[in-house]
Amino acid sequence: MLSRLPGPLPARHSARGLSLIELMVGVAVGLIVVSGAVNLFSTNLAATRRVQAETRLNQDLRAAADLVARDLRRAGYWGNAIQGTQAQGATATTVANPYRETSVNAGTLSYGFSRDATENNTLDDPERFGFRLQSGSVQMQTAAGVWQTVTDPNQVNVLAFTITPTTTTLGLGHLCPKACTTASATCPTVQVRRYDVQLQGRSVRYADMVRTLPLSVRVRNERLEGVCPA
């Protein structure tokens, strides 16, 4: 019987895992990747929040400015305005517009306009309006002594609310049957009124985020003064 001749034994291949150094290098690389991703996410989130705060700041200032412009243009409206320029009846005289006064005092803008269904020629308490800066917010007067906040104090801190009136007086004496000039105290004139308003606000979240919004408002109802000479 033939016997198998002895020969070299086959080599044994040992199976081994990662070394400690390789494991540490892999963990370090993974941490670097995760850290970069977290940092990128955090940066994008912060930028998004800042953009949202800036948008909210601009929107609040714009909304307040639009409200001021739309309401102030109505100042001086009077349902019986014809009585201020033409006497009604043989023995009647002209009547001064009860809503003609518009004032700016200590940062508070005050004016009035008629809301009567039937004109009573009187400036009533529900017909008194205005705007002011109070405790970092713009407030609107909707009636005598009634104020409502129109900006969000949790988002915007209004730093300044300035109103600069500009009045241009034009003589109307040349239109009277008996002409007169502005040298006469009673000669009729018309006052064209414009108000330059500036709003400045700062974001509550970001102290370095400050925006300024200017606007110019022309009052539609000019103020008439004086009468034509007899």
Q: In angstroms, what is the radius of gyration? A: 38 Å
The separation of the N and C termini measures 158 Å
**Number of DSSP-assigned strands:** 9
Low-pLDDT runs: none
User: Helix-strand pattern, N to C?
Assistant: HEEEEEEEEE
Strand content is 25-35%
Write the layout of secondary structure elements.
Layout: H1 20-72, E1 103-105, E2 108-112, E3 128-134, E4 137-143, E5 146-149, E6 156-171, E7 189-203, E8 210-218, E9 223-225
Antiparallel strand pairs: 1-2, 2-3, 3-4, 4-5, 6-7, 7-8, 7-9
What would a concise description of this structure say?
Helices cover 23% and strands 30% of the residues. The protein has one helix at residues 20-72, and strands at residues 103-105, 108-112, 128-134, 137-143, 146-149, 156-171, 189-203, 210-218, 223-225. The protein is built from one helix and nine strands.
Structure, explained:
It is a single chain. By secondary structure, this protein is of the alpha+beta class. It is built from one helix and nine strands; from the N terminus they run αβββββββββ. A hairpin with a 6-residue loop joins β7 (189-203) and β8. The longest helix has 53 residues, at 20-72. It starts with 19 loop residues before the first helix and ends in a 5-residue tail after the last strand. The relative contact order is 0.15. The mean pLDDT is 85.
